[in-house]
Description:
eight-stranded mixed beta sheet, 22% helix, 7 helices, globular, Glucose Permease (Domain IIA), 235 residues, 12 strands, alpha+beta
Amino acid sequence: MDEKLLFEKFKNWSANNTFSLADLFPEINKTEAYHIDLSIKNTTVKTEAEFNNPHFFSKQLRKIQKKNPSKIITGGYLEKRALYTSDIYNAKNSSEKRNIHLGVDFWLPESTPVHALFQGEVVCALHQKDYKGYGGFIILKHQLDAIEFYTLYGHLSEKSTLEHHIGDTVKKGTKIGILGNYEENGKWVPHLHFQIMLSLLDYKNDFPGVALEGEIEFWKAICPNPNLLFKSAAL
């Protein structure tokens, strides 16, 4: 089945199935999102230096959170960002950096518990050491109502990630891990990178969370908007 057919099938299925942010984060008593812009035109972290300074960026997030105490700071799907300067974002056949974000980020404190949105099979559970990589990340394979797809949970703690093994079944609602700290999550301010994939393509033990702008139409079909599940006006 080609990418467009897979996408339409998933889109039609998700139209009849709605999930809450409380399904992902049931222990923090927040169900609404507050969107922030981290695109190249954002005003939260205006420079690469500000973004890569965890103290500055964390302070900015705390200011936003203080004004929106009952909401989860989130955003990022298909944002063009100027933040991906690590060599791991080099493209094989282009001089450009990959800079289009394929998932949604949920900016929450380290050690925040993350729960599985669906029952699934663990197909990847690794802790990456790369600078600005995922840190701990888990990919689950799902088979629901004749729909097959995958979800990726990135920037988890090393310990909680490596408690999982390939082939394990994770039940819906199970705590899949906790958010990692700056030192173990790829040197990011703590957050969850959540992504949907309709195919793993030829990737093993990894999957891109950021793509080339020139390939955006292909990646949109492979990695649909997670808000198809949540249907949040803020996302």
